[in-house]
From TrEMBL:
Major site of localization recorded for this protein: secreted
Similarity field: Belongs to the glycosyl hydrolase 28 family.
Organism listed in the record: Quercus suber (Cork oak)
Subcellular location: Secreted, Cell wall
Bilayer-crossing regions: none
Protein name listed in UniProt: Polygalacturonase
SMART domains assigned to the protein according to its UniProt record, in alphabetical order: PbH1 (SM00710)
Gene Ontology MF terms in the entry: polygalacturonase activity
Keyword Disulfide bond belongs to the record: no
Region (Disordered): 1-117
Pfam family of the protein (one): Glyco_hydro_28
KW DNA-binding (keyword) present: no
Length: 529
C-alpha cells in the first residue's frame, strides 16, 4: 500500500507538522516520551515523568527519530504544546502509571449533553437499549463538541451499532461510566458481523470514562472452528520428555453444535477517522479483537485496560491497520493473542509504558499474506513489561509478500517467563501447510536494545528470507536468562540475518552475521513503499 504522506528517513514528529493532527488534541503535555532510534548511534531512554520531552537534532543515518509528547487527557478541541530542549538521562525501567480516574460529570464547555437514559435506555442489563443509543447519537451528531453520557451504575444491553459520520459535527465525546454488554443471542448477529461498537468517519471523537465494554465472548470462544488461525511459534513448543509431533491433533468441531455465527466481532472499532482518543475505559471478553483502528490518523490511547483469558482465541488487545501517527501508553493489556498488533499501512507508531500479559506479545504483522504488498515504518516500542507471554517483540511476514518494514526500535523491554522474547519470522504460516516462495517483505533498520529478563524456550529467533535477507539489525544490551519450565529449550537461532552486535549479549548471539550480505537483491519499484 503506497503511503503517500510518509516522510522517509525521519521520525514523524518532524513530518509535515504532524503535531497539528495528533497533538493538537491536547493543550498540555504529560507522561513520558522517548528518543526513537532506528539505526546508527544508540538512543537514550528518558525518565517517565509528567513533563514535555526534548527534540534531539536529527543525524545520519536515516530513520532517526525524536521523542513524542504524551498528552494529558482533555476534552477536544486540542492544541499542540511546545517541547523543551534539554537532554534527559536514561532511568531504570519505569512501570506504567496507575489507571487514572476520569470524571463522570461532563466537563465545562460542552454545548449539549445527551444522556442515553433520556432517550429511553433502561440500563437493566436485559432490555435491548440499542435504539436509545442510536437516538442519543443522532442528536449528538448534529452539534459540535456535544457529549453522550452512559451513566455509572447501569448495565446497558446494546446490539451491533454504528456511530457514524461523515456528516456528524466534530469533537464529540462519548462519556462511558456505566457498563455496555453485548448480546449472547445469535439472532442479534445475523449471519455474523465484524464489528460490535463501530465509530466511522468521524473528526475528533473521544471515548472516555471509567466504564466497561463487556463483549461476553466466552459463548463465541467455545465455538472456535478448527480452522481458526494458530500462532506459528506453537510448532516450536516441544514438551519435556516427549518428541516433536509434526501434526498435533486438532479439536473436532461441528457446525451442527454451533451457538454463535462463525464470524466473530471486534468489540470497539474506529474506521476512517481523525484525531481519535480512547482513555480510561476497560474492554473485556471481546469475541475477537478488543480495540481496533482501521485507516485512522491521529490516534491517542492511554490508561485503558484490556482483559480476556490467555487462551481466548484471536483476542488481540489493540489492532492497528492503515493508521498513522499513533500514540499508546499506560495501558494494561491481557488477552489471548497479540497485546498490540501492527499491520500494513501503519507508520509513526509510538508505544510506551505498557503492561502485556498474558498474550502473544507486541507484533508487527503478519504481513504479505496472499502475495500482498505491506508497508510499515517508524515504529517505536519501549518501556514495556511482559509477563507470561508467548512472544516478546516480534516481526512476522509471509513468504511471497512484497514491500518493506523499516525504522523499528524495541527498547527497554522487561520480559518475565516469556517463551520467545525476540522474534523475526519471515516464514510465518498460521495454517497446516504453506508453499515456499521467493519474494518477501524487506526488513531493514530493526534495532533491539536493553531487552532483559527470563525466557522459557528460545531467547532469539531470526528466520529471514533467503532471497531478501534482513539487514541493519542491531542488538544492544540484551540480557536474557533461561528459566526451565515445561518445554525443551533452544540456543539463539539466526538465518540470513545481517547487522551489528553493539555490546556483548547474554546469551552470546554468535549467529548474527556482521555487516551486509554479499549479494543482497535490489528491490524493484514494485517492492518499494
Amino acid at each position: 500500500m503506497k503511503e503517500k504522506n510518509e516522510t522517509r528517513g525521519k521520525h514523524w514528529r518532524h513530518s509535515r507538522g504532524i503535531s497539528a493532527s495528533l497533538f493538537k488534541k491536547k493543550g498540555k503535555s504529560q507522561g513520558s516520551s522517548n528518543n526513537h532510534h532506528s539505526g546508527g548511534s544508540k538512543p537514550k531512554s528518558p525518565p517517565h515523568k509528567a513533563s514535555p520531552l526534548p527534540t534531539p537534532k536529527p543525524k545520519s543515518p536515516p530513520h532517526k527519530a525524536s521523542p513524542l509528547p504524551t498528552p494529558k487527557p482533555k476534552s477536544p478541541p486540542h492544541k499542540a504544546s511546545p517541547l523543551p530542549t534539554h537532554k534527559p538521562k536514561a532511568p531504570p525501567l519505569p512501570s506504567p502509571k496507575p489507571k487514572e480516574e476520569f470524571p463522570s460529570n461532563p466537563p465545562a464547555g460542552h454545548s449539549t449533553t445527551f444522556n442515553v437514559l433520556d432517550f429511553g435506555a433502561k440500563g437493566d442489563g436485559s432490555t435491548d437499549d440499542t435504539k436509545a443509543f442510536q437516538a442519543a447519537w443522532a442528536a449528538a451528531c448534529k452539534i459540535e463538541a456535544s457529549m453522550i453520557t452512559v451513566p455509572a451504575e447501569y448495565e446497558f444491553l446494546v446490539g451491533p451499532i454504528s456511530f457514524s459520520g461523515p456528516y456528524c459535527q466534530a469533537n464529540i465525546v462519548f462519556q462511558l461510566d456505566g457498563t455496555i454488554i453485548a448480546p449472547t443471542n445469535s439472532n442479534a448477529w445475523g449471519k455474523g458481523l465484524f464489528q460490535w461498537l463501530d465509530f466511522t468517519k468521524l473528526r475528533g471523537i473521544t471515548v472516555q470514562g471509567n466504564g466497561i465494554i463487556d463483549g461476553r465472548g466466552s459463548v463465541w470462544w467455545q465455538d472456535a472452528p478448527f480452522d481458526d488461525p494458530i500462532d506459528d511459534e506453537i510448532k516450536l513448543l516441544v514438551p519435556l520428555n516427549s518428541s516433536v509431533e509434526e501434526n498435533p491433533p486438532m479439536p473436532v468441531r461441528s457446525n451442527l453444535g454451533r451457538i454463535m455465527p462463525s464470524i466473530k466481532p471486534t468489540a470497539l472499532r474506529f474506521y476512517g477517522s481523525f484525531n481519535v482518543t480512547v482513555t480510561g475505559i476497560t474492554i473485556q471478553s471481546s469475541p475477537q479483537c478488543h480495540l481496533k483502528f482501521d485507516y485512522c490518523t491521529g490516534v491517542l490511547v492511554h490508561d485503558i485496560s484490556v482483559s480476556s483469558p490467555g487462551d481466548s482465541p484471536n483476542t488481540d488487545g489493540i489492532h492497528l491497520q492503515g493508521s498513522k501517527d499513533v500514540l499508546i501508553y499506560s495501558c494494561n493489556l491481557a488477552c489471548g493473542d497479540d497485546c498490540v498488533s501492527i499491520q500494513t499501512g501503519c507508520s509513526n507508531v509510538y508505544i510506551h509504558n505498557v503492561n502485556c500479559g498474558p498474550g502473544h506479545g507486541i507484533s508487527i504483522g503478519s504481513l504479505g499474506k496472499d502475495n500482498t504488498k505491506a508497508c510499515v515504518s517508524n515504529i517505536t516500542v519501549r518501556d514495556v513489561i511482559m509477563h507470561n507471554t508467548m512472544n516478546g517483540v516480534r516481526i512476522k511476514t509471509w513468504q511471497g509478500g512484497s514491500g518493506s518494514v523499516q525504522g523499528v526500535l524495541f527498547s527497554n523491554i522487561q520480559v518475565s517467563e516469556v517463551e520467545f522474547p525476540i522474534v523475526i519470522d519471515q516464514y510465518y504460516c498460521d495454517k497446516r501447510k504453506c508453499s515456499n516462495q521467493t519474494s518477501a517483505v524487506a526488513l531493514s533498520g530493526i534495532n533491539y536494545e536493553r531487552i532483559r529478563g527470563t525466557y522459557t524456550v528460545k531467547p532469539v529467533h531470526f528466520a529471514c528470507s533467503d532471497s531478501l535477507p534482513c539487514v541493519d539489525v542491531s542488538l544492544t544490551a540484551i540480557q536474557l536468562k533461561p528459566m526451565q519450565e515445561k518445554y525443551h529449550m533452544y540456543d539463539p537461532f539466526c538465518w540470513q540475518t545481517f547487522g551489528e552486535l553493539r555490546t556483548p549479549t547474554m546469551p552470546p548471539i554468535g549467529c548474527l552475521q556482521i555487516g551486509k550480505p554479499s549479494s543482497n537483491r535490489i528491490q524493484s519499484d514494485h517492492d518499494l513503499c
